């Protein structure tokens, strides 16, 4: 992990920052109001956050870079009365989006010590809203897998059980929020990479609709990937979506704007909805853990008690070649990222630069002809049309978020003699998420329950195209009925 200006030091030599056990778990709007009112200084809040990171990082392994000096400099410029909605609130950015002056590693040796020369548009929007960027968080190399244990930085640990994965690919962000290292963190989702770690770590993880958040200035139109945040509450997710959402000049595609601000719409009662309970996995060989199934059934019963009509449903989303076509469409993105890493470091990538799974995807994508790629994308788009058309008789779908409990660290990774076997197993762990990247619909993971093993047990809600407000409103209703924000891992409660 790279540390700006100073490295971790023994605890007895640290400056004594204020205790932050409670601050770390407060809603981001409340933290901003404390700073705005002068009840809490921005520097005090950021110092406390940096101390919390220093205290837990060696245990959790959530960060690739901690920006002590620059974060404190920004905090010093924020005064009481600052009108920006989140002035002084610390946030971490997943290490696959550029933050000017900070490393961008993709958690790969290939990228070396590359430093980003500019901000992603979404990072600029977060800065403009007053957020203070305190560092970059871990992911599996290139963001391929739903676990986070790269060769370069080692495993990131789930704060609820240190021997389990926090999920991926936004695993560092999820672990940091769950442990109270930061109150909110950025994530993105190309096959479940926000929802999966949210489910593993007991957080809210929204994948916005396709085109809702710009991927500029570096990314063009993306068929699969959308950016968002990992939070503890539906309100925080809705309020920050207002910051991130919207067209940027030059965007190739964008989602239509909502009827009002998400920060207002989430608080409106959703009305009586027709909800389809879906237990059938898009992948035929994926077995559903009874705990995950029971969570979905319990959520269905809760929704019925809230006045909604819930029926079991079977979408037309199971297809023998689904995983292959998804890989044919997703693989070229990984191949391009690998190629880009070579360009940034001035040399052609080799198998020594990346993990075996990354190299396997790189080589497969390079050998794949254009017709194969376009045919796979065309079949996925046709499948998406059929699913969205079928769903028109429902307002929302309810599924398990995961098919299995958070897997032990070391079970699914991109190294070893059978990287492709690991990749296929990852799909059986998380079969309900990637299909929503194919359709482009918004979807959210909600941490409604905990299993007897103490691990969070989440469900997924899938909404109509470009209608995040439907999901947010229903999610807020569920949160009010069965609150989860005060649940904390024992590790997080003991720190500071």
Explain what the structure shows.
This protein is α/β, with parallel strands linked by helices. The chain has a single domain (2-494), classed as Amidase signature (AS) enzymes, CATH 3.90.1300. Helices cover 37% and strands 13% of the residues. The protein contains 16 helices and 14 strands. The strands form 3 sheets. It has an 8-stranded mixed beta sheet with strand order 7-9-8-13-14-12-10-11, sandwiched between helices. It has a 4-stranded mixed beta sheet with strand order 1-2-4-3. It has a two-stranded antiparallel sheet with strand order 5-6. α5 packs parallel to α6 (195-201). The longest helix is centred in the C-terminal third of the chain and has 24 residues, at 322-345.
